[in-house]
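Section handout 9: paired folding examples.
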Amino acid sequence: MRLLIFGPQGVGKGTQAQLLAPHFGVPHISTGDLFRENIAAGTHLGKQAQAALTAGELVSDGITQAMLADRLREDDARNGFILDGFPRTPEQADWLDAMLIGGAPVDAAIVLTAPYEVLVERALVRGRSDDTTEAIERRLAIYRERTQPLLSFYGSVVETVDADQPVQLVHQDILARVSERTGVL
């Protein structure tokens, strides 16, 4: 099973990916986790990512893609994966498509949605130091501008799920949509 999970900050992508991964027996791969792991391990890529983050910049596509390529080559990802946080742009989607040539394509792109006010409230409740109202609004605007075009890119495999409901109901909705699309329960 190869799933992508999209949605703005605060919509519950990580929560759903963590629930789906054991269900399908594939790893949940988060680019944020990859950054933290590489930085903690002091890898060459981790040092480059840390330098970008320390400078207040986004980690470049080249660094992100190199980390992800290494992770997708690991044995546990051989039968699939759930990507959380990647791709974020059409260019990254092109790269992922090229990376998967010769293997199975993406089975589904799950798009989690919730009202703007709910997203802001959820992000503020997390209590992270960088989760100010202004920062959250900026990230939501960036999501709309950069990531939403991916819905067109993945058009035929997109499944939209309302994430403004209890976690278990969101999970059940995702499983039902993926089952309808792939025949896998």
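Moving on to protein 2 of 2.
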Amino acid sequence: MGKRKFYKNDRAIRLRDYNYSQQLPLLDLNAFPLIDDFQITLIESGSLGMHLYYFSNSLNRMIASFPWWDKAEKDISIMCISDIPLGTLRNPFDDCEQSWQILIWEKRDYVYIMQGDDPCCTEFSIWFRVQKEKYLAEWEKLLTKFH
């Protein structure tokens, strides 16, 4: 994981507006690429502690991140599985800061992730899906490691 190269899709998803509870159900969720080898990792960031990244070995890329979640290891040490970033199609997990936003939701057997470059954005250059079972297993592994 030496170089921190980020995954981007060939084309961005563009939403009409940032009313995500209305816009997300209009998406073709079958078009989201499936990441079979999804992993979660923490990487040391100096005085900011560890930062959390989603990673794919086959792509050799970071596929999404939480760049403003400083000292993530401290929060993770007191989290339980109900605290992980996960929402629903109508109420997605939504986090944003300067020049970054991430939406995460589950529907049926998959977890969908979209990351954009601005808060309240309507254009997402990173978008993919993960089997829900794999997403939860990776979080369980991380929670166990830091508890």
